[in-house]
Request: fold
Amino acid sequence: MFPPAFLTLLASASAAVAGVVDSSLISKRASSVESCPGYAASNVQHGTGSVTADLTLAGTACNTYGTDLTDLKLVVEYQTEQRLHVKIYDAAQQVYQVPESVLPHPSNGAIDDQKSDLVFSMVNKPFSFAITRRSNGDVLFNTSGSAIIFESQYLRLRTQLPESPHLYGLGESTDPFMLNTTNYTRTLWSRDAYGIPPGTNLYGNHPVYFDHRGSKGTHGVFFLNSNGMDIKINNTAGQYLEYNTIGGVFDFYFLSGPSPKQVATHWGFGFHNCRYGYRDVYDIAEVVANYSAANIPLETMWTDIDYMDMRKVFTLDPLRFPLHLMREFIDYLHSHQQHYVVMVDPAVAYQNYPAFNDGVQQNAFLKFANGSVYKGVVWPGVTAFPDWFAPGTQGYWNGEFDSFFSASTGVDIDALWIDMNEASNFCTYPCTDPEGYARANGFPPRPPPARLGSPRPIAGFPADFQPQCTAQVSFNVNASTYFGENIVILGSSITLGNGDITQAPGMSANNYPIWNAVVDLPTDTTVTYQYVRSENDGSYIYEKTNRTIHTGACNGTVQTVSDTITTAQGTPKSKRDAVDSSVPAALRPYLMERQSQGNMKGLPGRNLIDPPYMINNFAGSLSNKTLNTDLVHANGFVEYDTHNLYGTMMSAASREAMLSRRPSRRPMIITRSTFAGAGRQVGHWLGDNFSDWDHYRWSIFEMLEFAALFQIPMVGSDVCGFGGVTNDILCARWATLGAFYPFYRDHNENSSPPQEFYRWPLVAEAARNAIDSRYRLLDYIYTALYHQNQTGEPLLNPMFFSYPNDANTFSLQYQYFYGDSILVAPVTEENSTSVDIYLPNDQFYDFYTYAPVRGNGAMLSLTNVAYTTIPLYIKGGSIVPFRSSSANTTTELRTKNFNIVVAPGLDGTASGSLYLDEGDALAQPATSVISFKYSRGQLSMSGTFGYNPNVVIATVTLLGANQTASYNNGGYGGNNDGRNGGNAGSNDGNGNYGNYGGNGGSAGTFNATSSTMTYTVNAPLTEAFKMNLGGGRKF
Reply:
């Protein structure tokens, strides 16, 4: 298996140009990369567990995409027996390197190179190096045959590969799980990627790949580089993989394997619900109540940016999500063992309000070279962006969290959702007029009409959430408009904006040219109003005269008014999109002044906007729809080099901020943008997917990449899809699949119909079934998460991880193991009730019936798979801890006893584990780490028993049982007083049970249909025991 050190690297990580580079050499490609001379090694030194050398340009510089650096350094470190570090960097140490403050580098154990699983070898001229597996001589990485290129803005390194390799990783991507190896490019550059289209760069960057070679073993290669890059895989000159990056250094970690294997809150594994488009606090309360009425367990309610005042972070919409009602709503959730999460974006509205003013005061925002705050456009309109490298930013972020999310006076969230942190910027580069762009494109978007109370009773909620005494008026106006022009209604009531045009409700054009809005108004009141044309440049055309209406009585019939607008259609304005640079040319020299020599913060004189080598960024230029790449951070780093770190740095800062407000609780955070090592801080949802079968399928292997390869175990996709329109069959299938994501949340956008699980009978049934299975397995998967935290062994396993020598598993991407023991094999075709699954040559058991199923290394056709279920199998050789029943919340679930399911393998043995703790505390006061073993008919439980869950093992179920064997020895032996376990019980269940005296278990009950034997034992989980289950098996 991969050693913990490697997986910790990914989980906790995973002087030629001493002066200014000649920019004239960068303006065009001077010669083909094939003419580059490479380097020659000299002064080669071999130390204890290390190799160093000087590398000198071996011929005439090619200056293909910049200036060739003439002098480099090579450092090789044998850090552990399974990990080898190879680094090639500039001798002057000016070139940017990923800072350890962002990604802590693993320590160097400096072992004797003869003890390493890996062997480093090199050719001096032209310099190349190779990595070989010591045990079998297999060459894992070999750069010979292609010159290494190290230029001011371009690095290239190519390794040879065997024919038809099995490669995985290099995310984030929705391309197939096993990488294409012919004419394929994977680009790494963080991007707001709505729809997560295949073949493009997405939100995050994980430059690690796994090379699986069957019986020869599996190795990993991690490239520690945060610059934009194209990784090309092709077979035109023999099979190869080639790195093409626009900066940084060559910094590789090689992991020997040879096996492909090697904490969030407990409640975080519950079911979560969200929607972008909940209009007010009554809306979200009604959803919570509806889930309860439908008997679908809801653990956590989420709110998207709807809760903000005009989309400004650290604010509440005072009309739709007022603080007193929000606190009342959250109190209701907490009193019902439920939780609440909201979204926070990095972009802060460039407006006179506390969050912006505080950031300016603490120098927390990115700035232009002239010292002015950099402006972009996001949801609230013109925005500033935190500079995570600035010394005042963490304190600023902590302060906003402490205040806005205060448990006593603010919005008392239980976890955090962070988004738009690639960073996303709606304004097209160069964005010289962000104010004009925001006005022309409708940012911030107009909120929905405010309501004075809930339109319907909400069961279980307090009086403030019940219908109030209001009048309703349906406003209708005949108004012809051009595309992009809209109609709003402005009046004297608070629900008509009360004179504030930004709060005036928009009208619907569903029956164009009739525009409509149904609005709550105070009863028995005269209200003035007018219709206003909202133009596409952000301006307004007002009517000259107000209209009036006198409202009716409390909750009476909806009043209807029909009007014709008195203003003429406006004239469409062309949207400004200037093409000049967003930073005046006169200021550009200042961009490099803060970069001194030898500080690894980047070479001076580079073209930071349009580098000579352009990566295949789907958004176009590097700065388009994101931050300007020539921005200089407070510590001298440039955005060009650190762009891919922005999301991970926000994650780290947000984790600290959550700890600042709740120091003793685990800060569960779900983020969109990630970099290698993010898994030690946050979980990840897979972004803005669509409601279709492709995205349903892609979610499976994308989830496997993050959990198994990138070491971000808390991962999941928006169940039923974020964009587009779902349907009951797709959503039912997705509800069952999502139950076997680590992170399980239904979420969709405001332009799509609501898709809460209770809206279709079929989906509701599927959700109830799936959540029942998920919750009964919750301690099992929580235990798997604990093991991933401790050792790196993933809580989700691709098929080839579990069967590395079975070539049939290498390309499987739609079935996987949930933990080590539960095989998930979903139906993947639209409207189908059948699926062909692969069962390796091993013993399995049907999850639902426990019936034995013998795998023969062949496909198995499943038919009549109901839309409300998902095929699941227990792998032979496993012992799985189930809760005896499900529950409505994870808190209630923790009161349920356990049923231990023993599923013997082909050799008649089985094993498993169970981790128990309090579930939410950062520092656990007590834990239990329990091991189960079954062999020769005896089940034993041992380990550490520091945590008392106040429940027992109520039953033990043996699968594959044979009635002819002896199963009547149902007692167990305890040893909590330090003595050996007692003897197994006799036929009547009585025996010697250590200090338990005569309290024995019952004789087993045999089920001939499923070939199972079930024992009632009621054994505590506070000490070791042994139990005789008999030895019969039936396969």
The radius of gyration is 31 Å.
